[in-house]
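Before surveying the methods themselves, we first show a specimen of the format, giving the amino acid sequence and backbone structure tokens:

:::
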Amino acid sequence: MNHARATVISVQSAPKSVARTPTLAQTTCPYCGVGCGVDITLETAGNKTTLKALTGTPEHPANFGRLCVKGTNLLETNDLNGRLTQPQMGGKPVSWDTATSAIAEKMQHVIDEHGPDAVALYVSGQLLTEDYYVANKFMKGYVGSANIDTNSRLCMSSAVAAYKRAFGEDIVPCNYEDLEQTDLLILTGSNAAWTHPVLFQRMERAKRQNPDMKVVVVDPRATDTSTLADLHIPLKPGTDAVLFNGLLHFLAQNGGLDTDFIAASTSGFEAALSSAAEYSLSRVAEECDVPEHDILALFTLFLERQRAITFFSMGINQSTSGVDKGNAIINCHLATGKIGKTGSGPFSITGQPNAMGGREVGGLANMLAAHMDIDNAQHRDRVQRFWQSPRMAEKPGLKAVDLFKRINEGKVKFVWIMATNPVVSMPNRCEVEAALSKCDMVVVSDMVTKNDTLKFAHIALPASGWSEKNGTVTNSERRISRQRGLLKPAGESRHDWHALCAVAAKMGFAEHFDYQHPAEIFDEHARLTAFENNGDRALDLGGLSGLTIAEYDNFRPVQWPVPEKTVAGATRLFADGAFFTADKKARFIAISPRLPEQQTTTAFPFVLNTGRSRDQWHTMTRTGKAGKLLKHAPYSQLSLHPEDIKALGLSAQELVAVNSACNTGEPVILPVVEDKQLRKGNCFAPIHWSATWGSNLTLGALFNGAHDPLSGQPELKQGAVSVAAVSFNLHGQMIISDADVAAVLSPAFDYWAKTTTDGGTAFRIASNNDTGSLFSSLKCVLPALWLLVTRQHEKGLTVIATSENRLVFGLWLEQSYWALPDEWLDSCLQQDDISSELLANLLRGTPDEAFLNGKLVCSCFSVREKTIETAIQAGCSSVDGLGNELKCGTNCGSCKPELQKMLDSYSSTQTAKAVTPEVILHD
């Protein structure tokens, strides 16, 4: 296998006799869809290359040197701990030849017996474009089935369908500079402060530079993003289409239409306006459950501001009517002509690093390739001729939810899962597990040895990861960048395209899958986008075809389309008012708003919303390796409004069972926390934690798989759940230095949840056993050479284990839960010598006062809540002031919104005190 040399720039000159030579290499971040450039200092000694330091790329147009806390800590997650480095069959190592032969033989057997639609690929927005291209070509042109779908189905497929309905092609019309040049920024269904922090920082800076710029946040929760807002619209979940239908009606009633643009560049306006006509201000306010004056304020801003961006994400897309919501937004921009212009447009932001690249090559089951349509016979013929393939899929394949249903029904008998963890991320987890357990063959390509999906794999293939993968990605503003291979793949790991080519060759297609370098694949992809295009499709990379390997290695970020080599890319589309429909006019879509399908009942009275946690990403197979990234939120939690907590008779951090009508397994169990920013009757849980991280962390089981009929995107922003206290005899904590021992110990408890620390693993635990029984069972599995010291008392048990006078294990159990600071326990694990005083404090559960400063706020500089509160009380009155005093917020900036919330909370408290009337008592 060939690996391209990284593009390197010497950062210092040194004589040839120097053994270690530092160089600078450039790549992109593997997390969200912002597509940040990353500079990495490499150090080479002999044949070994080490990644020594990392910063943001100053000149990359996506981030201009900024990185969030996840990107900043990439090197801390890039070790080989937990890496899958050899192919496995039945859990035993085998050669690549054995594994790929078994896959090819099984695929061919299933195709011969049951037809091509009995096999499927389920891939990921974390694949590079080159991987995606080969997978799509293999399935649709050579297997002859469109049963290749992607986890991007869960992310932005509703936005894809909305754009395609309106514009005739899946085109994001905006760019990041528009966020800085707009007069009005509406963020709806997006907590950008946590999900896309680098873009949020650009928004913050733009608002500081232009105080007249207005920001509106439309979200049922007052998230950290709302700290930037001039106006927050806490609408009832699922009523987004009502809001934007109402806006369209308001614009028509108040002279806000661009009638010239509507006449020249659109169709379908009258029908769309007719559907919106019944949504008066009062009706919108009533259905959205928002005061009418706030609705009027939003509508007036959109009416009066010359430039407007509507920035939307999962809160819009993850819905049974996500496509309609997207089109309701687009309708408002078309009606006012606020599209194709600086600072204007409907801007869908993606959640994965290459969801956009997957859209370009046809990675979704209802697409063909190069933005061509699988339902179009002319397009099918064109792609087949280009590929010179023996066959071509003639109908759309199975979208994600339907795919796993068909596997469960026995109709799909082979599935190859790449770079994704669907047991965690899909809804209806119990059905997904049942499907994979009965599938004839499950192949999983991944970097890790363990996740919730890998346990169902008959064959596991080791995939290259970030810093090893070599290819391209496209970010949310259509900007193509290089993700460069800086290191050789670990062990026997291979790039995903290479694994696919090996299987294709063994199925008789070697001639068409004989790529030797990713540059060859990119070239073929670029040529296909230009093939018989003639300006009919916006996606045209003809100007990027024919690159030499050296030119590919030195590729600089560019926004498509790039139809000719003399064209430097396109920052913005539709400036000429022409679209990519048959008549070149954008289409208005008449929208009839629909409520979410998973409605609350008496038995399941709470609306469950899900989303991301600030310092984590997806299912934590990377971010979960860094203890630093788990200090802000060590464990998953269920957030509830304080009045709901009180009504349920709960207290903060009490364990609750969360259940739904569709869940056939055990309930999800989470500690509950107060969040007064939630609507009453709503609760929120983060998506990242899974059964790998706890005994009852199966969040996807609470959603029934309801999905948008057009996009197939599941409704993951609204479930209907019950919340009830769950009781255990004993509650407590455990910390351990040895991960293997930890894995053996955790099943001894009825409930456990773990978190990574710098020195080992920490647990929150609960049990219905008595202390004597638990201690007996633990002694059986703890290493015999560990020295145990115990303290049994009326309410519980403490066990401390040392080895060579180092702390290696600690257990604290009582009848009610009280938390020792994980950071104190972790610091004890990392001490070379445990003093008698520290041992006594561990037995008593008496932490050092230095660790009693509340939750972590700033991950970069380990600044805690109470330290910040003290600084605010002492006079720090701005985020910049806190940064000067404590350094918090001065590195990645991810904590700035939380700092602002703390400042706002203190300010409102002081204001309340100031206006409290003096009470005078008279005798």
Notes: Residues 896-915 form the longest helix (20 residues).
